[in-house]
UniProtKB/TrEMBL annotation:
<feature type="transmembrane region" description="Helical">
    <location>
        <begin position="89"/>
        <end position="109"/>
    </location>
</feature>
<feature type="transmembrane region" description="Helical">
    <location>
        <begin position="121"/>
        <end position="143"/>
    </location>
</feature>
<dbReference type="Pfam" id="PF24686">
    <property type="entry name" value="FLQE3_permease"/>
</dbReference>
<feature type="transmembrane region" description="Helical">
    <location>
        <begin position="198"/>
        <end position="219"/>
    </location>
</feature>
<dbReference type="InterPro" id="IPR056926">
    <property type="entry name" value="FLQE3_permease"/>
</dbReference>
<keyword id="KW-0812">Transmembrane</keyword>
<feature type="transmembrane region" description="Helical">
    <location>
        <begin position="20"/>
        <end position="37"/>
    </location>
</feature>
<protein>
    <submittedName>
        <fullName>Fluoroquinolone transporter permease</fullName>
    </submittedName>
</protein>
<keyword id="KW-0472">Membrane</keyword>
<feature type="transmembrane region" description="Helical">
    <location>
        <begin position="49"/>
        <end position="69"/>
    </location>
</feature>
<feature type="transmembrane region" description="Helical">
    <location>
        <begin position="149"/>
        <end position="168"/>
    </location>
</feature>
<keyword id="KW-1133">Transmembrane helix</keyword>
Length: 232
């Protein structure tokens, strides 16, 4: 078994033991409790907001929780001394949570019985989840405890939620196109026939979040080297 496969398997085992899988299931049930009482014509309107909120919760908070568990158990100090590379460590962190987010989104959309197009739905969920996972990962590295991080985390979380104001028409500013969650939200709108995207919007919705994901991976590597490796 390769280092990456072993790391992913161990991370999945730890996340199940730490009850993150249970929390994801509970999150899905909460969203269903919100959606199912709504009339059918309102569910498709609410689904893009629900999906972005769900990816934010699972992506942003869950990965920060795993990082602080690693710090508390001093796992990170041990990882630095192993042959495991940063890219493998980060991939192992991202893979189970991205899979959980995709599964919850598909189940919520299927149980809700709102008609949707699967390709933009899955693309939007994957991109939004990876963006939020990496934002949660990079912002958690400088802090020693989750209580210290939580107060500061409100700022990036609020910024990532701003495209909801653009999507709803409350704040229709092109500045929201600078925020990487704008693209996935457009894909959610297309998945539930709320928006008909122009070709440039489709290209933007796929390319810009991908570029931001690459930038966040680079930032995560630098912060990991500074706050984890150097301090270890």
């Amino acid at each position: 078994m390769s280092r990456l496969a072993a790391a992913v398997r161990l991370e999945l085992t730890l996340q199940v033991r730490q009850k993150f899988l249970h929390a994801a299931v509970f999150s899905g049930l909460i969203w269903l409790a919100v959606l199912l009482p709504m009339p059918a014509h309102l569910r498709t309107v609410a689904e893009p907001y629900v999906l972005l909120g769900d990816t934010a919760i699972i992506g942003f908070f869950f990965i920060a929780g795993t990082v602080f568990f690693d710090k508390q158990d001093r796992t990170l100090s041990a990882i630095v001394a192993t042959p495991l590379r940063f890219g493998e460590y980060l991939t192992a962190k991202l893979t189970p949570l991205a899979g959980i987010s995709l599964a919850v989104a598909v189940v919520v959309a299927a149980v809700d019985r709102a008609g949707y197009h699967p390709i933009p739905l899955l693309a939007g969920v994957l991109l939004a989840t990876l963006v939020m996972l990496l934002v949660g990962f990079t912002t958690s590295l400088p802090f020693a405890s989750i209580s210290d991080w939580f107060l500061t985390a409100v700022i990036p979380l609020s910024v990532m939620a701003l495209p909801m104001l653009h999507y709803s028409g409350i704040w229709p500013t092109p500045l929201c196109y600078l925020i990487p969650t704008q693209g996935p939200l457009l894909l959610f709108g297309a998945a539930f026939d709320q928006l008909h995207l122009a070709p440039w919007q489709i290209g933007y919705a796929l390319a810009y979040p991908t570029l931001c994901i690459a930038g966040l991976c680079w930032a995560g590597r630098k912060l990991f080297a500074h706050y984890i490796i150097e301090r270890s």
